[in-house]
Structures are given as C-alpha cells and as structure tokens.
C-alpha cells in the first residue's frame, strides 16, 4: 500500500472544504472513494450506513458494488458487521466472513453476491454519539494489515468530524431561522394586533355616540370586520409559529441562545444521543418547560452558568435544566412551572427537582415518554 500520509492529508484537506461542511454527502462520498483506493478498486466495496428514525441503519452511500442489493438496505442494531459496530461503537473486522461467529449472518446472500471474503467496519461518532458506520469489504482472502486497520479508523474519524461540522451548521441555521420567525411573529403581534385593538376600541366609542341609525349600523359592521381581521392575525401568528416547531433540537438551542443573549449568563445545550422524531404536542411541552425553567433562573437565581441537557433513551426523553446558583430553601416542584408541568403530565410524563447533596447548583428535570 502507498504511503498513508499523502492521501490522508489530501482527504483531510478535502473534508474541510466549505462544500463538505454544508454537504455531508460530499464528505461521505470522498471517504468511500479513499477507502476503496486503500484496498483496491477491483477487490473492494465500501458503504456508509446512517441512522433512521426507527432506531436502526440504512445504507445510503455505496461504492464499488457489483449488485444493487446493498443500496438502501435496512440494518438493525446488532445485525451483521455494520449493525454490530453501530451497537457497540467500536471498530471491528472479520477475516473470514462466512465463518465468523462474532457477527450475525442475516445478509449472507448479499455478501456472497458481492463476493466479499472479509470485512472491516468503523463507527462514525462525535462525543459518544454514533452518527453512522463506515464498512469496507474485500473480495480477496487474507488478514487485514495493522496499517490498513489504522487507516480505516482514521478515515472514519475524519468523516465523523465533517459530519459533526455539517450537523452543527444545520442546527445553528435552524435555530437562527426559528428565532427570526419568532421575532417577526412578536413584531406583528405587538404592532398590528395592538393597532387593530385600538381601532376596535375607538370604533366602539364612536358607535355608542352615533345618533344616526345608518351610521351606527355601518360602525357595527366595521367593528365585526376589525374583530374578524384580529382573529385572522392571531391564527396566522399561531400557525406560523406552530409550523416552525418541528425541530426540538433547534427549539432548545434557540431558547438557550436567547437566554444567554438576554441575561449574559453563560448557557449551553447538550444533546446526549440523537433526538428522535417527536409529535407537535411533545415538542411544544418540552420547549415550554425549558423556556419557563430558564426564565425562573433569570428571575430568581444568582447563577453564573446554566445548562440544558437532553438525553434520548429508548422509551423516554429526559430534559434537565441546571444552574450553579444556590438551592432554594423551600423547593416544591410545580411552583412557577404549573402550566409546563401540566403539559408534560398530560403526556404521561413528570417534572421533578433533582435532590442530590453531592452536586452543586440546582436542577429541574422533566421526563416525557416516547
């Protein structure tokens, strides 16, 4: 195999190109191309599998295949080599695929059709979150050289870095777009709604003083039309905001960014695991909980730092809002959070205070079943 340093530097330079920052597909395609070149175009096939909402993986990028069986293939956690690496989040390889006992063999017919003899797979991960799996199959026999294993692991690490940048860029863009929609909604509410209310009030006063019956009727009609327009504006604002409330990650990041900008208190949002798709009711309930709890930190705490931690478990979403301020002398869950707590309770969830003398600061946690 040629010197690894030159292609590795070339790949890193390419992955850091601005196009790959906003287009993870480019980064993955380049990674597959490099992986195939490392092993040999005629004897290797490589693919990247990415998570799907159901909790497994879907093979979305393939290079060097001889059949179409690998494309869009669903892989559940633990299935085959790719599923095993996704589940255990560590590199693994088999040098005699057909006889390997460390993996399951649901896809033997596909691997046989591809004439693959041995395989190696590495996780694409950022901060302990697995973003996908890079897999390379060889059509010849023999053990993997140590430098080949190290190179595949490096490729996976660099692709992970590119995917992480791309996701962070998308998250920031989504949070910024959501904040702008909220700003415009509030501006419309504060200006147009207030003006319509003023017009309605003045029309009502004139209507009461109108002596002419015909004029009184006209004023009454005008009142109804102004009320109708006011209702339309309210529905428009509500609908516009509701349509934006589809990305919990962006919602929470936006709330944290707004809190930090407004208060000057250092704040951070931490996401442990991929946030699963949620219905509007759950997104609204969790977003309201975070917003109200951060508002309480602003009003009632002397904190210098705050954090919102979101942990996605198989059957539950946990959201903890913490700050480094002192614990109140009397803590009764629900005070100041009645509305938010009611929303979460209506979904079968709960809100509680984390009572742990071993930790500093104050944490309120919400659990929402999925």
TrEMBL record:
The keyword Translocase does not apply. InterPro entries: GAF (IPR003018), GAF-like_dom_sf (IPR029016), HATPase_C_sf (IPR036890), Sensor_HK_TwoCompSys (IPR050482), Sig_transdc_His_kin_sub3_dim/P (IPR011712). Keywords: Kinase, Transferase, Two-component regulatory system. Residues 180-241 form the Signal transduction histidine kinase subgroup 3 dimerisation and phosphoacceptor domain. Pfam families: GAF_2, HisKA_3. The keyword Thylakoid does not apply. Residues 23-163 form the GAF domain. PANTHER family: NITRATE/NITRITE SENSOR PROTEIN NARX-RELATED, OXYGEN SENSOR HISTIDINE KINASE NREB. This is GAF domain-containing protein. It comes from Actinomadura nitritigenes. The lineage of its organism: Bacteria, Bacillati, Actinomycetota, Actinomycetes, Streptosporangiales.
């Amino acid at each position: 195999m040629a010197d690894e340093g030159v292609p590795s530097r070339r790949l890193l330079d390419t992955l850091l190109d601005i196009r790959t920052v906003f287009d993870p597909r480019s980064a993955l395609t380049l990674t597959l191309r490099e992986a195939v070149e490392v092993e040999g175009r005629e004897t290797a096939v490589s693919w990247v599998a990415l998570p799907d909402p159901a909790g497994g993986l879907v093979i979305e990028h393939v290079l060097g295949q001889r059949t179409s069986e690998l494309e869009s293939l669903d892989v559940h956690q633990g299935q085959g080599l790719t599923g095993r690496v996704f589940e255990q989040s560590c590199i693994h390889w088999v040098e005699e695929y057909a006889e390997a006992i460390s993996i399951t063999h649901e896809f033997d017919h596909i691997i046989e059709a591809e004439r693959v003899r041995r395989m190696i797979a590495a996780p694409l991960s950022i901060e302990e979150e697995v973003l996908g799996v890079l897999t390379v199959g060889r059509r010849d026999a023999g053990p993997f050289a140590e430098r080949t294993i190290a190179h595949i692991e490096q490729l996976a690490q660099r692709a992970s870095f590119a995917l992480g940048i791309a996701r962070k860029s998308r998250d920031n863009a989504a949070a910024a777009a959501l904040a702008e929609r909220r700003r415009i909604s509030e501006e419309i509410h504060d200006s147009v709604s207030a003006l319509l209310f003023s017009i309605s009030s003045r029309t009502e006063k004139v209507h009461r003083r109108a002596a002419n019956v015909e004029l009184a009727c006209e004023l009454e009609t005008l009142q109804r039309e102004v009320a109708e327009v006011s209702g339309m504006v309210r529905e428009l604002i509500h609908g516009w905001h509701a349509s934006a409330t589809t990305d919990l990650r962006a919602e929470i990041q936006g709330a944290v960014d707004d809190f930090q900008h407004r208060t000057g208190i250092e704040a951070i949002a931490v996401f442990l695991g991929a946030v699963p798709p949620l219905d509007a009711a759950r997104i609204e309930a969790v977003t309201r909980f975070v917003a109200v709890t951060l508002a309480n930190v602003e009003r009632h705490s002397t904190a210098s730092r705050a954090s919102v931690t979101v942990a996605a478990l198989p059957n539950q979403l946990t959201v903890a809002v913490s700050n480094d301020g002192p614990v109140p002398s009397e803590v009764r869950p629900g005070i100041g959070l009645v509305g938010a707590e009611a929303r979460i309770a209506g979904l079968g969830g709960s809100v509680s205070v984390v009572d742990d003398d071993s930790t500093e600061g104050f944490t309120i946690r919400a659990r929402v079943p999925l």
